[in-house]
Amino acid sequence: MTNIYILGLSYTNSTPSNLSPTGKNLSATLNGYKGTSQLDVRTGYFGLCIRQRGIVWLCSSDANGLTQQIGAENDPLNLIGAASEFKDNVLFSDLLFMAIVLAFLSILLLATFPGWHEESNGSTGSMVDVKPFPSRTVSRVALTFSSVATVLLLIAGLWQHVGSVGAAAMAGMANYGNVKTDIGAGAVAMAWIGFTLTTLVSVGLLVMILSIMALDRLAE
Length: 220
What we know:
Structural class: alpha+beta
Pfam families: Fig1
GO cellular component, one term: mating projection tip
InterPro entries: Dni1/Fig1
Keywords: Membrane, Transmembrane, Transmembrane helix
Order of helices and strands: EHEEEHHHEEHEH
GO biological process, one term: conjugation with cellular fusion
Radius of gyration: 26 Å
CATH class: Mainly Alpha
Strand order of the largest sheet: 4-3-2-1-7
CATH architecture: Up-down Bundle
Distance between the termini: 57 Å
Largest sheet: 5 strands, antiparallel
Shape: elongated
CATH topology: Butyryl-CoA Dehydrogenase, subunit A, domain 3
């Protein structure tokens, strides 16, 4: 999780130049309250990882346990609590699990498709390689599974992206430059790679089904 994460929070000392006088006063107040704290917090679907003063990462699904390990005084702006709230109330992993199950079922159905085998040519008597068409019912069920998985992955990817971007913006604004936020590129890439792969499978199955239907019409 230290490299594959959705949202990262850490303390920083930058002050935005576009702040109003009141905002600058609030930024200075929070900076004084923060002191010299150095803490990195990264969150994913199933837990948090923290690193104090760039030394060792500690990971757990229990935010309170992580806070006790480093001491609440080392997290004055409660970054661990904010990351935990984001994980519990914004992230939603059930869509990913449903998509994975449907994609796995689709792969199992694809594995039942007939492969190449040799048959005797009735006119010449020679052996030729043939590949029968797969079952229409199995093809359509596999297409349904992969299509639903694609939609679920699209929703999950958008949910993850919009949620993390919104949370990052709010955390940065609410702390007036005392908290640095970043979006995990690895998690973003994995979400959209999964969506792309299931899309390719769905398109391939659809093209195959339509091609078989067209050949059947030509053969009639």
